[in-house]
Amino acid sequence: MIDGRSVPNNTRLGADVCIVGAGPVGITLARILAADGIDVLLMESGGLKATADAQKLNTGEIDPDSNHPPIDMYRERRFGGSSTIWGGRCIPFDPIDFEVRNYVPYSGWPIRYGDVARFYDDALHECEAGAFKFGENALCSSEPFIEGLEISGGVNLTLEGGIERYSPPTNFARRYSKVLLSQHNLRIVIESTCIELETRNGGGHVDVGKFATSSGNRFTVAAKVFVVASGGLETVRLFAASTRDHSAGLGNSHDLLGRFYMCHIEGTVGKLRLTPGSRRVAWNFERTIDGVFARRRLRLSDKAQNERNLRNTIFRLHHANPVDPSHRNAVLSLMYFAKQFILPEYRRKITSTELVALEEMPKGVDFWRRHVLNVITGMPTLAAFIPKWILGRHLKYRRLPYVALQDANGAYPVDFNAEQEPNPDSRVTVSDQRDHFGQLKLNVSWKATEQDVASIEESYLEVDAALRHAGVGCIDFGQRNLRELLSNCGPVGGHHIGTVRMGCDERTGVVDSDCRVFEVDNVYAVGSAIFPTCSHANPTLTALALTLRLADHLKRTLPKRETDTRSVDQ
């Protein structure tokens, strides 16, 4: 491991492959290529820990009309990247996500579901999340999600059950550092920010990557192949800065770079009310047969989506809103106090649903008195909960993903994650502001379409109708209009998808089916940036599956070095 600040000014380093970004994707690709005898330089902008100076490089602007969190939130510029803070949810894409759907503009991948699915087993292994089994038969328990509800081809083929698996969560830097550092043909260079990919031969080949450090020194890396694994935002910035022979930026001859920016739309809307109220529900965390934490979820079948022109959406049962003291739960009230007054990192995670509830609640003494009363009267519950939480969450490697508590009133809030359609007007561009390396910062203009919201609304109503048809219950939306409730939901701030999309040619995408940038012969991009559509699923698992697929491609096309020539022009 090399600290880039110690590399002499104007040095040129060399390798077969230069990987820009040492998050889960970059670390996985570097390890696999090096194990195959390929000489690799893994370049990371940050250090071993997050620092204020490094994190400042993540800041940027947000369009005033865009309901998007600050773009430095949920991003870590350090060795290990987002895996140092992620929650570990692992869900694969579905076959429908790869198909051309005439009711979803710009849908369809240039590769098939099977081209990615064959790598899911290994991707799950990388995440320590068990086997590629996401049916309810993967669970230790044989009880149904909701007693009396058929979700395996039942209820008019409307609903499908399934699970989501959870990584411990794996910190890729900590988990894989030892094997990375043991590979003689792999060098990790930290504290080194790539500021440009410089082309030659009329722009068709990248000769070197230019790097800058906070110490003021600058150096270059020459490589046969460059792989950019910098995430859905920073990949756009690097390509936009690479203008030597591409005035609009690398991969942007058809103005596609940064367009089609997708996040998942999420929220907690409505409550599941069972008939009768005593009906059993498997709503908490469970273990799979292979020992992984998992939770149940529902989705509309592919058949139902195609018949009703709906985007892919999943539904889970959530804990009661911590803001509302009527839940009468000591743990939830204490959680709200922690979010509001104690933990600034927690405060930023107060959801839009919670904020709306807070706006509508009376803020007087009675509001706080009821929360305090919940804590005082629930002391026995807290006494039992806190040791179990500390043990399960902080003292075990495979830890409980988050708090999952039942409402004392017997209602089950319904949480959703929804696919957003690819929209060319939802985009990431560069602003006129510069960071301390002189690089232009990013501007985010995230947009959801009317069809996105309408699809979520219709999906909720379809699930409600299926529950009623089965006679097991319904979703209660209270006194407010469902569309109004959905208008307060927003994007998942940590999922940055589609900005360097994969296409059939340069008119439809930035990279091809092998992840190579169309305009150059030796630059690849990998990660959620290249997804043409976003599904409902958290992107990490599919990003790793595509990484493994790219590794196979590079191993086939790159000759192995017979001698060690790991740096040139020292």
Question: What are its keywords?
Answer:
nine-stranded antiparallel sheet, alpha/beta, 15 helices, disordered C terminus, 570 residues, 28% helix, nine-stranded mixed sheet
Number of helices: 15
**Shape category:** globular
Largest sheet properties:
9 strands, mixed
Report how far the terminal alpha carbons are from each other. 18 Å
List the SSEs and their pairings.
Layout: E1 2-3, E2 12-20, H1 24-35, E3 40-43, H2 52-56, E4 60-62, E5 89-90, H3 113-117, H4 120-127, E6 159-166, H5 172-182, E7 186-190, E8 193-200, E9 205-212, E10 218-228, H6 231-241, E11 265-274, E12 286-287, E13 293-300, H7 302-308, E14 313-317, H8 330-342, H9 344-347, H10 352-360, H11 365-377, H12 379-394, E15 412-418, E16 427-434, E17 440-445, H13 450-470, E18 473-476, H14 482-486, E19 490-491, E20 523-525, H15 540-557, E21 567-568
Parallel strand pairs: 1-7, 2-3, 2-10, 3-7, 4-17, 10-20
Antiparallel strand pairs: 2-21, 5-6, 6-13, 8-9, 9-10, 11-15, 11-18, 11-19, 12-13, 13-14, 14-15, 16-17
